[in-house]
Amino acid sequence: MNTEEIEFDLVKMQRFAERDLLIKRMAEELGNDERAYKVVFNSEVVGDSLMENTYLSL
User: Fold this and answer.
1) 26/30 Cα distance (integer angstroms)
2) DSSP character at residue 54
3) CA distance 2 to 20
4) DSSP per residue over 2-53, as a string?
């Protein structure tokens, strides 16, 4: 498990969406705004060690 605190960052999530089709499509379906990216962040990134590591590397 990652010991680094993970926090939402809109710019990082937008970069993540450029690299990950699931993140991109989910954000688009939810309106492609900051709220949409927060929802996707909380549902798909937080708690998934692979997604968290990828997010933190951006």
Assistant:
1) 6
2) H
3) 20
4) --S-----HHHHHHHHHH-HHHHHHHHHTTSSHHHHHHHIIIIITT-HHHHH
> Rounded to an integer, what distance in angstroms lies between the CA atom of residue 21 and that of residue 27?
10
Instruction: State residue 51's pLDDT score.
Output: 97
Per-residue pLDDT tens digits for 6-54: 999 999 999 999 999 999 999 999 999 999 999 999 999 999 999 999 9
Per-residue pLDDT band at 5 (split at 50, 70, 90): confident
Residues 6+ apart with CB under 8 A from 2: 49, 52, 53, 56
Joined tokens for residue 23: 């993140």
